[in-house]
Amino acid sequence: MTPRFRSPRLRPLLLTTTLTMTLTLALAATGCGTEPAPGSQTAADRSYSADPAPDRAELEARASAAQLVAEHVWVTEAAGYALARQSVGVLGDDGFGSVYTEPDGGQIRLSVERLPHADADCTDGPASGSAQEPLVTCERDGEQWYRATESGHAYAREQDGLVVTLSGPRQEVDRATLRAAARAAHRADDYELDRVLPPAGEAAGRQPVERGDLPPEGDGAPNNEVGASG
Q1: Which end of the chain is more exposed for a tag (fewer CB within 10 A), N or C?
Q2: What residues does each domain of the chain span?
Q3: What is the CATH number of domain 78-184?
Q4: Which among 148, 162, 153 is positioned nearest to 74, based on CA atoms?
Q5: How far apart are CA 95 and CA 181, in angstroms?
Q6: Is 34 exposed, middle or buried (0-12, 13-18, 19+ CB in 10 A)?
Q7: pLDDT tens digits, residue range 202-224?
Q8: How many CB atoms are closer than 10 A to CB 85?
Q9: Contact by Cβ (8 Å): 107, 172
Q10: What is the pLDDT, as a whole number, of residue 154?
C-alpha cells in the first residue's frame, strides 16, 4: 500500500492565518478600551478631568478674604473676551463684579447684586433712564430684559433674589455679543471659583470695588441705570 503524506505547506499556512486573525482581534479589543467614544465627554469634563477637585473650604476662605460670597460669584464667556482677574471684587454689601475684555478694548461688565425687582425688568419703576441719558429701548428678550441708552446697553435677569447684569458701551460691544454673554452667565462652580478668586494670601486687606456712580449729594443711593459704572 502506498503511504499517504499530508502536504507540509498546509499547516504553516493555517497557523499564519490563525495568528493574523488573533492579532487583529486583540488590537481591535485594545482599541475599544483606550479610545473614548466621540462625544462621550462634555467640554467641562474634558477641561476638568485632569485637574484635582478644588477644596471647598479653601475656596470659601479665599472668597471671604476677598470680601465675597462664593455663591454670588458668577462667570460668563463671549467670543474673544477674557476675564480681567484684577477687576474681580465685591459690589455693595455682598454682590460680585468683574470685567471681561478683548484686545481691541471692548469691555463687558458682569454684576450680581441685591437690587429691587424693577432693576431687572421694565414692568415697574423708573423705565425712562436718567435725566442725562434716557432709555431708548427697554424690552423683553427671551428670559432676560434688554435696556439701552444712546451710549450703553445691558441685559439683566433676576434669579434667587439677585439681579445679574451684563453691560457694556454700545460702540464697543454689539447687542449680539452682549446677548451671548448674558445667556452664558452662570453661577461659578468650584473649578471656576478656583480660577476667578484671588489666590490665597493675595486677598488680605482687599478693598471693595469702588462703584464710581454714587452722587456727591443726597442720600448716596447708587445709580443702577444702564451706563452707570461699577
Answers
A1: N
A2: 78-184
A3: 3.30.200
A4: 162
A5: 19
A6: exposed
A7: 753 344 444 444 333 333 334 44
A8: 13
A9: yes
A10: 96
- For the segment 65-82, what is each residue's pLDDT rounded down to a tens digit? 999 999 999 999 999 999
And the C-alpha cell for 212? 464710581
43: left (phi over 0), alpha (psi -120 to 50) or beta: alpha
Bridge partners, 96 (sequence order): 90, 112
64 three-state secondary structure? helix
Does 7 score more than 70 pLDDT? Answer: no
Contact 130, 223 (CB under 8 A): yes
Residue 116, pLDDT score: 78
| Phi–psi pair at 115, nearest 5 degrees | -130, 160
Q: For the beta carbon of residue 219, count every other beta carbon within 10 angstroms.
A: 5
61 contacts: CB under 8 Å, gap ≥ 6: 200
**Above 90 in pLDDT, residue 35?**
no
CB within 8 Å of 73: residues ≥ 6 apart: 63, 96, 112, 187, 188, 192, 193, 196, 197
CA dist 173 → 177, 179, 195 (Å): 6, 10, 25
The C-alpha cell that represents 89 in the structure block: 471684587
